[in-house]
Amino acid sequence: MAGLQIKDVFREARLFTSRSIAIGLIMLALVSVLLVRLYFLQVVEYERYSTLSTKNRISLVPIPPVRGLIFDRNGVPLAQNVPSSTLEIIPDHVEDMDALLNELGQLVQLSRSDIKLFRRNLKRNAGFKSIVLRSQLSDEEAGRFAVNSYRFKGVELSARLERHYPLRESGAHVMGYVGRISPRDLEKIDENQYRGINFLGKLGIESYYEDALRGSSGVKQVETNAHGRVVRTVSSTPSQPGKNLYLTIDSRLQAVAEKAMAGRRGAVVAIEPSSGEVLTFASTPTYDPNPFVLGIDSESYGLLRDSLDRPLLNRALRGRYAPGSTIKPFMGMAGIEFGRSPVNKVFCPGFYTLTKGGHRYRCWKHSGHGSMDMHDSIVQSCDVYFYDLARSLGIERIHDYLDEFGFGQKTGIDMHGESAALLPSREWKRGARDEPWYPGETVIAGIGQGYMLATPLQLASATSALANGGIRMRPHFLLAEQDPMDNQVIAANPREVMPIVSNSEVIPLIKDAMVDVTSGARGTARRIGAGSPYSIAAKTGTAQVIGIKQNEKYNEAEIDERHRDHALFIAYAPADNPRIAVAVIVENGGHGGSTAGPIARQVMDYYLLGKEPEA
Amino acid sequence: MSRRQPFSIDWVLLSGLLTLSIISLFLLYSAGDQDMDLLLRQSVRMGLAFAVMFFVASIKPEKLMRWTPWLYGIGLLLLILVLAAGVIGKGAQRWIDLGVIRFQPSEMMKLAVPMMVAWVMVKQPMPARLGTVILGFIVVLVPTVLIIKQPDLGTSLLIAGSGVVVIFLAGMSWRLIMVLAGLAAAAAPLGWYLLHDYQRQRIMTLIDPWSDPLGSGYHTIQSAIAVGSGGLYGKGWLNGSQSQLDFIPERSTDFIFAVFSEEFGFIGSVLLLLVYLFIVGRSLFIAMEAKETYTRLLCGSLAVTFAIYVFVNIGMVTGILPVVGVPLPLISYGGTSMVSLMAGFGILMSAHANRWFMH
User: Fold this and answer.
1) Which residue positions in chain B have pLDDT lower than 50?
2) pTM for the complete prediction?
3) How many domains does chain B fold into?
4) Mutation choice for A interface testing from B176, B218, B245 by most A CBs within 10 A
5) CATH classification of A57-76+167-245, choosing from 3.40.47.10, 3.40.50.880, 3.10.450.50, 3.90.1310.10?
6) Phi and psi torsions of B180, nearest 5°
7) Which of A86, A161, A359, A567 could form a disulfide with A596 if both were Cys (CB 3.0 to 4.6 A apart)?
């Protein structure tokens, strides 16, 4: 019994040992599998996993630069950056957008237009980019959201600097505005320069000087945890702020001009003749650019766009108007240049005909001026004299001469979208209309009618060249740039001299005539010059809006307001030492001397005398 | 005659276990966001587990053998009770609430099943005959099915494994093993249909975790990134970015090896595996030394089961096995599995104290 027992025990022990060895080998095999796997992950594939781990951990956060500020020539701020609490949503992180908006609506005020705008942006933008839902939250709203933020995945409260135009409507057509970068903008810009930047200049100075104002983005390497929270900053390259700009605009003068234009459509452009600095660049009606910064809602935009007064049109830059009689001083200069003696007289019977008994080109004074020389015909704005002068010059010489004053071409001002308007010629007409030039068209070109069109800016620039003794300076808005890093101010855009337009004898002659426009007994703007302590060289103009049939009388009272003539006025002062040249256009304003002239006078009075216009 | 020792301690095995405990505390400090409270709680559990081990070590193997059918019977009853009235935790019924502590009967079965199988096996001389083998399988199958019902497939498979190991050690014929293996392979497709959806998903995820990197593949991918980015030397203690920045889910419990591997690298991982191998080797050695066949079978099973835990957990973390809820023995945070494991080591120590060669 005992022997059997012992034998069993030994046999069982041997069996157990062999089985244990078998199982031990299996386990060693399994451990080898683990070792091979670990070797594969940690040694062979180390680089790959290390990269993945870094990607998990490190994200690059762009630091947007601070956009440059814009001031007027006296340091009055025109564009600022104001801090604003903003609610932004990253759509990819939101499961149920409707529910989210509903709940958010209970914490902060969300207007219908906020939500509409947000939904529009939602459709346009990539899901991983944050979209602004509301900005300029009140402290109370921001606080309420902050306390409840854990409930809103994908929603972030951020403090941003927002562009603000403190003067609102005033000067809006100069400033333009910044707006959110749209998909269409993305096709044009280098996205590397816009890391972390959501806005760009869309119009005006904001657009033209975008590169200077923008600055350059910095970048921050941050460590984030699995929930996307930033744990610490690893490294950072600071952003470079954009340049501050000082404009040539005098914002108070601008306000005076806009106030004088209140309720009227038109433009006032004032230039310092010796430098080409644009002092005032008013286009009325104007609009408030501030709502455009965050995206204007479609209703408000529709109102602006569809308004008959077209407030969004930059009339000073793009408005094309027949210059009317304001062209006469330039025509006179052309005449002298091409050999007409200024003392030569032309008899004005009240009309002019090319052939005997042919079409009658009327003088505005139907009874006729009688015998007129150049001086008198400028002072009294005799049309017949200039009909005759134009015909004797011919359209080609008119074109070539006015071209030197900048008519029919862009002035090259530092703003996008300028219109070249139109200085007609035979060549132009053949190209554009496929028609020959008719002699009658030359005749009416003599009084700035017909095809000839000019922008208020062109008129002001030409007047300013006249005031500057025939030397045309390129009109410009930029006075100086300031680097906010060292506060160094660099005067920008050195005054660029355009070609000399005339010999020196002709200028005083024309100036005398223009002075008599405001001071002569028969001057068309003698009311404008009345009581002025400085002498004003000016020319009135009236541009026809609708054609008047032969033998029909123009009756201002009977004609619909929008079909009335445009009133024009160009002037510079003081006549002997010009410091300001002005062009005023009042759409449907009637006669230039009575409507546009007083506006120019108010602008000059304020600029030269510091005199506030009477309320 | 053998004398009952006042302290039945195998210092060799104990040194291995203490090494793991120390590693565990350092690792939990890193994985648990340097939370001293968490460390304290785990230390208390460890103390409790070691106390259980010493207590079990003082019980003679003969006594254990006598208690075996009772333990197994009570375990079965509790499993049925759990199914009837258990507390639902994490979507499965696994717990019994005893008021003071909550208790998982399946943990008890981790010991009771191999004990019962060994108890059945030793009724007949080795190698085990077919009848005994069948009886052994029945003993394994009943609790396994009950635990699958909870449902807890991972634990049930590990428990079944611990029982089957006993049958294998008892000398089940190789021919029978081949036949069973063949049958199991043939039944595998059928098994696919018996799996829950989430279980199938886990297997699919294992094959291609990148098909759903933020969903079902997230655990596997992030832990592979942690392990892989650890490299040869590791990122250093407390410096694992995957671990410290919350990229590894369950990093104090089931995925703690990912933390270890990220911070201590390939070299650290090999050393840790060596510690485990040392413990398993020592345990197998103790089993071979054991006086009684019952003790031998039981100790062998405990050693192998311990090794399987390690393999399954590390296999899961390194992405060669599907995600199953198996902690890394003696290192993961948590108490329940530690107590049953340490009770097992208590049995081993008792066996060592009463070993064959002492006669």
Assistant:
1) 1-3, 359
2) 0.72
3) 1
4) B245
5) 3.90.1310.10
6) -65, -40
7) A567
